[in-house]
Amino acid sequence: MAEGLFIHLIGERGLADRFEIDSCGTSGWHVGEAADSRMRQTAAAHGVHLPSRSRQIRHSDFRRFDYIIPMDEHNLRDLAEIQAGVEGAKAELVKMRHFDPQDLDGNVPDPYYGGQRGFEDVYEMLLRANENFIDYLVEKHQLAV
Hints:
By secondary structure, the protein is mostly helical. The chain contains five helices and two strands; from the N terminus they run αααβαβα.
């Protein structure tokens, strides 16, 4: 949902052509699959489309992207370990909730076991974090809005 929400928000701000966005995971589970139906339903209820299919991170991602945004501490550690073995890696690793004013050090919880409320809670966290991440990027990179 983080990727779809980011795409939605930069579209609303007229910044869609300023970013290259992709979503992936650290494991190969669910490669090629769409987001969970409950996640898609939650996003759609807020006018957000989730376009991507699951894929596993590649070494080239660490050279290609400026930022890689893991959802939790476990994935941050896994990504840092992978990145250490990638020659020419430039991506900055920053947890998503680093940009959430309600919990700057927290993790985005796995909503799959929390019922529909869990998906709504994750949507709200990701909305706050994405809005602040975009503000950060606009300011840091002096992007004209």
